[in-house]
Design a protein that fits this description.
With 151 residues, the chain is mainly alpha-helical. Among the domains are: 53 residues; 34 residues, no CATH class. It has three helices and three strands. The chain is flat, with a radius of gyration of 35 Å.
């Protein structure tokens, strides 16, 4: 007696179910990322990557400082020091690198740090000006509703 094995026919030339699932997950990831970008105006991991890179930069500076590779003369430049205004290719440019002394339109610019926008001062509180003018509209509506319900 011969045994018969019933095997399903082999797939010929199509993509597998696993490849279809991976492809659909990739398309969904791209779509969700685009929707996130449209809502928050940044890519999903952009803030995390920037924080991590800043942390790595701080760690790198501290390691170099502890190893003695960085001298104390590497202090940051004061705010607005050496900033210049010039015209390059018809456009006004503010830079401390691109505006050279050879350019005739180069002018030194002094920046001043300010506090930005501040809210206007609040009016003085006078207790004599506040007068109770009777029941509010909400209280009137509540009393009307309770009178109607009582009838």
């Amino acid at each position: 007696m011969k045994q018969a094995y019933f095997l399903p026919p082999k797939q010929s030339g199509g993509i597998s179910l696993l490849m279809t699932a991976v492809l659909m997950m990739g398309i969904a990831l791209i779509g969700i990322s685009c929707l996130y970008y449209l809502r928050f105006s940044q890519w999903p991991m952009q803030a995390s990557f920037s924080r991590w890179s800043q942390s790595l930069g701080i760690i790198e500076k501290e390691v170099k400082k502890s190893a003695g590779l960085v001298s104390n003369g590497d202090n940051p430049v004061p705010f607005g020091d050496g900033l210049r205004k010039c015209k390059i290719n018809g456009k006004i440019v503010y830079s401390n690198v691109d505006c050279l002394d050879s350019n005739a339109t180069t002018r030194a610019v002094q920046l001043q740090d300010n506090r930005g926008f501040s809210s206007p001062p609040s009016p003085p509180k006078d207790s004599g000006l506040t007068v109770n003018s009777g029941p509010t509209l909400q209280e009137k509506m509540i009393s009307k509703a309770t009178d109607k319900a009582a009838k």
